[in-house]
Amino acid sequence: MCQCSYNKIKGKGRSLSKGSVKKGSLKNGRRFPKKGTNFKYFSKLTYFIDNRAWVHEKVCMATLEAYKICEQMMPERKFMIMECSHRKGGKMFPHRTHQNGTSIDFASPLTKNNHPYHGDQWKGIWHYGLQFDEKGRCMRNKKIRIDFEDMAKHILALEKAAKKRGLYIKKVLLKMNLKDDFFATPSGKKVKEKGIYFARYLTPMIDMVHDDHYHIDFGFLKK
Q1: 110: number of CA atoms within 13 Å, CB side?
Q2: Cα dist. 189→55, 174, 194 in Å?
Q3: CA distances from residue 35 to 53, 64, 81, 158, 174 in whole angstroms, order as listed
């Protein structure tokens, strides 16, 4: 019976994100389910021990609704949530952000031989160590590639679900030399048309680690 609770949202009360993603805290957040129909959280270690799967309630609900949208558009695709925030927010090594429950790392969807590939979903924390070249090909196996079209579809779904809850996508971090291929896809062009902001500059260290995943900061729309 206990195991079942891990596949449900945990947390109650009205969420409050204080401060910024770089210096903030989270009150009454929500912990993502460990897995759903077409998604899973990437690491048992950071989920159960480090408590890094917490976000603001609106961010949680928007993210889960986006996965439902994606399930209709691309039923063969499985997604993966990576690190979010601590239960009460605050500093979370080695991240410089992720402090107030409005940040999520999403694993880049992959293909192998032009078919959805999900073998990366069993790597746990080692997923952050995956490396991709400037064309989105995995350094250890060039048959494995980033699926920029599915990534863009996911971002569009997030943007749609976020707006329904008074949120917007404030910033996306993706490795600089991958952005051209992302925006060249049909859905990537739609992302650009909507004006969803992608960081225009990243320090070399930050840029280097944003090839295996895309980081998203959500913001709250002004009433």
Answers
A1: 24
A2: 29, 16, 9
A3: 11, 10, 9, 18, 24
3-state helix, strand, coil in the chain (%, to 5): 35, 25, 40
Cα–Cα dist 162/58, whole Å: 8
Domains in the chain, start-ordered, CATH in brackets?
Answer: 2-13+20-220 (3.30.1380.10)
Contact 79/45 with Cβ under 8 angstroms?
no
**Quick check: helix, strand or coil at residue 217?**
strand
DSSP 41-102: ES-HIIIIIS---EE-HHHHHHHHHHHHHHHHH-TT--EEE---B-TTB--BTTBSS--SS-
Tell me the pLDDT tens digit for each residue of 42-85: 999 999 988 999 999 999 999 999 999 999 999 999 999 999 99
- From residue 105, how far is each of 151, 156, 220, 223 by CA, in Å? 12, 16, 18, 27
Give the SS3 label for residue 18: strand
Q: Are 144 and 136 in contact (CB under 8 A)?
A: no
Name the token pair of 218. 């959500």
Q: Taking each helix axis as running N to C, give the angle between helix 148-163 and helix 186-193, from 0 to 180 degrees, rounded to the nearest 10.
A: 40
CB 87 within 8 A of CB 54: yes
Give the pLDDT confidence of 141-150 residue by residue, as tens digits.
Answer: 999 999 999 9
